């Protein structure tokens, strides 16, 4: 990423955790620790002297909790924030609040000393810090991509279990950093009779159910965390369970949800590539619409190219509306996108589709 190192401010009331995180951050050639703070007030003093590229923030701290501090940062002096907390997964509403108020990622502190879990957390922290730092000049997009207000009491629940012959379109979608806001933007603006939508958002297990529940409360569609063997229904959105890969399968006359506990792909579980490749095997290409939204890395790009070659409609979010133009940018670079569109344009395309 060049000679310049991204400056990280660590805010955590545990000195031991701060020391471990400092060692971790300094082990990466693209990152350096600007400073550590035991509470938000000390963090503010440090920021007044030097502005970090990204803040690694705990939630449960003395004097002021991390969510309150996050809200103040985003309203007064926007700086990219990654949450690293021990209470994020136990109380996953904390995670949803953090994302809603502008955090770019939420990473739970590992509960186990298992080397595999520790290594996965290490990789995720470094990946997210660099992605967040790259988004520093694009934080205004998070504020501009607000979901439309929707009265959930008026929600329609069309329970139309679709046979393979009745399905005109199936939508598969993938996202990472900045994706929760992009997904909210799109889903809150879709018609309740939209084709079935399967979404892989890079998000840890324990968070995805709360994410689906939030979407269900603000969207005209029916939204749920994906479950094994669900039959696809009109107007229904299936959010990948953060513990499993989400796949699409055809069984008899129906399209169904499949969850697999395989190894991470592109360092991710769930992986967008896994979802997109499963769609190629299960659905006629002319019925498929694949969408790759904001996110760092390359997950989803290669499988989108295969989808395009097969004859599916493939859409990449444009750079202007992306918080991080990594995944969709890679898809555009390798020629995998049939169309490159803004979030509003993607919404327009989807609302013209017939289930």
Helix and strand topology:
Layout: E1 6-11, H1 15-26, E2 31-37, H2 40-49, E3 54-57, H3 66-76, E4 81-85, H4 92-100, E5 105-108, H5 115-134, H6 140-144, E6 170-175, H7 179-187, E7 197-201, H8 208-218, E8 222-225, E9 236-239, E10 245-251, E11 254-260, H9 272-282, E12 288-292, H10 301-310, E13 313-317, H11 327-333, E14 339-341, H12 343-351
Parallel strand pairs: 1-2, 1-3, 3-4, 4-5, 6-7, 6-12, 7-9, 8-9, 12-13, 13-14
Antiparallel strand pairs: 10-11
Identify the notable features of this structure and list them briefly.
355 residues, alpha/beta, Rossmann fold, seven-stranded parallel beta sheet, five-stranded parallel beta sheet, 12 helices, 14 strands, 35% helix, 20% strand, elongated
């Amino acid at each position: 990423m060049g000679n310049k190192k991204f400056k990280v401010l660590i805010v955590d009331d545990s000195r031991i955790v701060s020391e471990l995180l400092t060692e971790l951050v300094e082990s990466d050639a693209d990152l350096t620790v600007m400073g550590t703070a035991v509470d938000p007030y000390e963090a503010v003093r440090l920021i007044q002297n030097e502005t970090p590229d990204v803040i690694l923030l705990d939630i449960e701290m003395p004097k002021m909790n991390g969510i309150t501090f996050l809200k103040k940062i985003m309203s007064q002096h926007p700086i990219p924030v990654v949450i690293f907390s021990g209470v994020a997964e136990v109380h996953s509403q904390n995670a949803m609040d953090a994302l809603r108020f502008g955090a770019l990622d939420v990473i739970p502190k590992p509960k186990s000393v298992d080397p595999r879990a520790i290594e996965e957390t290490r990789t995720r922290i470094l990946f997210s810090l660099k992605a967040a730092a790259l988004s520093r000049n694009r934080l205004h997009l998070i504020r501009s991509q607000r979901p439309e207000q929707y009265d959930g009491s008026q929600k329609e629940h069309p329970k139309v279990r679709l046979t393979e012959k009745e399905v005109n379109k199936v939508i598969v979608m993938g996202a990472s950093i900045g994706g929760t806001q992009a997904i909210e933007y799109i889903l809150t603006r879709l018609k309740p009779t939209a084709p079935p939508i399967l979404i892989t958002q890079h998000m840890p297990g324990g968070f995805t159910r709360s994410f689906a529940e939030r979407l269900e409360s603000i969207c005209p569609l029916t939204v749920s965390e994906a479950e094994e063997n669900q039959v696809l229904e009109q107007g229904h959105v299936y959010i990948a369970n953060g513990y499993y890969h989400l796949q699409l399968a055809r069984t008899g006359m129906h399209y169904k949800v499949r969850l697999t506990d395989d190894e991470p792909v592109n360092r991710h579980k769930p992986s967008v590539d896994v979802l997109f490749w499963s769609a190629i095997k299960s659905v006629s290409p002319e019925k498929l619409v694949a969408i790759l939204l904001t996110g760092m890395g390359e997950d989803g790009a290669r499988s989108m190219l295969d989808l395009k070659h097969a004859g599916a409609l493939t859409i990449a979010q444009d750079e202007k509306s992306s918080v991080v133009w990594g995944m969709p940018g890679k898809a555009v670079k390798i020629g995998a996108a049939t169309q490159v569109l803004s979030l509003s344009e993607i919404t327009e395309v989807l609302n013209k589709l017939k289930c």
